[in-house]
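quick one before i forget lol
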Amino acid sequence: MANFKGHALPGSFFLLFGLWWSVKYPLRHLNNGNTKSCRSNLFYQRLDLIEGVVKAVFSLIGILAEQFVPDGPHMRLLDHESQSWVKLMNWQHSTMYLFYGLSGVADILTYCPLKLPVGLDRLMLSVAVFVEGFLFYYHVHDRPPLDVHIHSLLLFTVFGAALSVAVEIFKRDNIILELFRTSLTILQGTWFWQIGFVLFPPGGGPEWDQRDHDNVMFITMCYCWHYVAAIILMANNYFLIYWCVKLKARKNGDEIEIGLLKKPTTDKTSKIALLNGSDEE
C-alpha cells in the first residue's frame, strides 16, 4: 500500500518483535545459570513456538491487507484487457510478508518432532530479511531524491540484520548477535513509521520538498537518532530486567552476576581455606 497505513503496518510488526526480543533475550541470558533444567528449557521453547505462530499470523494479515484493500490487486497480477501489471507495489509487499510467513512456519516446525536441522529457523529468517532488502532495492527507482534516500537508509538496516541472523546460524544463542539483531529490528520498525510520516503526512500535514537537499541531510541525521533511541530503549530494558532478576535471586538466597549464578562455596573449599589460614599463623 503506497500510503501511510502501508508503512505503519509493517513498522508496527517490526517494532513489536523488536520490543519483545529486547525483553526475551536479556531475560534468558541473565537467567542462564538457572535455566539448565528441562522445565526451563521447555518454557523458552514454547515461547519460541508461540513467536513463530505470531510471526506467521502477522504475515498472513499483511498479505491480506496488501491484496484486499479497496484499491488493491485482489490477487490479480496481470490485467488481460490492458495487458499491464496490476499494483506491483502491493505484490512486492505481499512477497515480503510471504517470506516472513515461511520463517514463522520454520520456527513452528523446529519444535515439532520432525528432527529438522538445527539453525533452520535462523536460516529462513535470514533469507526473509534478505528478500525484503532485495525487493526494496528495486522498489524506488525513478523516484524523487528524498523518497529514494529514505528507502535506501532502510537497506542498511535490513542487510545488516540479514547478515547478523546468518551468523547466528553458526553461533546460536549468542547474546551480542541477538541484541544487535534486536536493535536493527526496532530501528526498522520506527523507520517504517518515519517513512510514512515523511512521504504521506497523516491528517493533511504539510508535504516535504522531496528535491530539497537539506531534507536529505536532515533525514540522514534523523536515521542516526532513531538508532540511538533504539539502543537507549534496549539498554533500559536490559538493566530493568537485570535488577528484577537480581531481586528475585536475592529472595531465593542466591547471587547473580552477569547472567551467571555464583557457585556456592563447598565444604571442601572452606576446609582448605581454614587449613591455609592456620598454616600462615
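fyi The chain has eight helices and four strands.
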